[in-house]
Amino acid sequence: MIGAQKNFSFNLTLIDHAIVNALQEALEHIMPEIMSDNHLLERNGYGQFRWNPIIAQLRDKCQHLGWLELNVCPRGGWKTPVLFHHSSGYIFTLMTEDTFKGIQRRKDKGKHYLCGAAYFNEELEAQYEQLELALPGVSADLEECVYRSQKQLAQAIHAEVGEIKGHILVLFDTYSDRLLGVRAVRLTHSLEISNEEENWSHFIGMPYAADLTITPQQNDIEDEETLVELL
Questions:
Q1: Which InterPro entries match (predicted)?
Q2: How many Cα neighbours within 13 Å face the side chain of 204?
């Protein structure tokens, strides 16, 4: 099949909207306010610092929803946000589109936590366009790094590796202080985008009812990111 399934859905009602809203609030409102209130003209370290309000907004939205947990996974001096959907057993991480493309092509990609996350996924077919990229796989000498990354991600959400059923990567694209696009994808072990892809961009600018009463579900069933490696 060429490309992602047009009608594919992760069926993450409210969660998809909440994540997009958290990104937009942090990138388009909080960060510009920080720059303006403190009369900052230069943007040194901007790409790294913006992850602080992103994590704060994600934490706020997760607490509101009730059935989505957020924690951070320490990676050297960096803290990577990890979300856990207890009902499905899926974890979520976030990354910019440009950073992801760079990691895809790395020969030492096994050092990056994203490979550990992708190894939670099984039996996925890569999109045809992704196969044409001929991406390098994870070398045998780095497989131990992958497994340690899995353990770190599991520990971050206070779970066992076997409790995690899969990983969803939320990719977003920005220009200046604008959020341009958001999509959710699942990756193969070589970091190819699979046919499980859903566009969440239509939630950008859509009002999010933060005061909505929600009944939690039962648990029944970048520049900066390129440096986040297993140390």
A1: DUF5986
A2: 18
Of 22, 1, 32, give the one whose Cα is nearest residue 204.
22
How far is the C-alpha of 186 from the C-alpha of 73, rounded, in Å? 20
How distant, in Å, are the alpha carbons of 88, 158, 186 from that of 221? 6, 18, 20
Domain definitions of the chain by residue range: 15-129+136-203
Per-residue pLDDT of 197-228, as tens digits, reads 999 999 998 765 554 444 444 433 344 544 45
Q: What is the pLDDT of residues 114-168, one digit of tens each?
A: 999 999 999 999 999 999 999 999 999 999 999 999 999 999 999 999 999 999 9
- pLDDT band at residue 172 under the 50/70/90 scheme: very high
Which two tokens mark 212?
A: 């909505």
The two structure tokens encoding residue 125: 């077919």
What is the C-alpha to C-alpha distance for residues 42 and 39, in angstroms, rounded to an integer? 9
**Residue that the structure tokens 């590796």 belong to:** 161
Instruction: Give the total residue count for the chain.
Output: 231
CA separation for the pair 33, 27 (Å, rounded): 10
Whether the Cβ atoms of residue 179 and residue 139 lie closer than 8 Å to each other: no
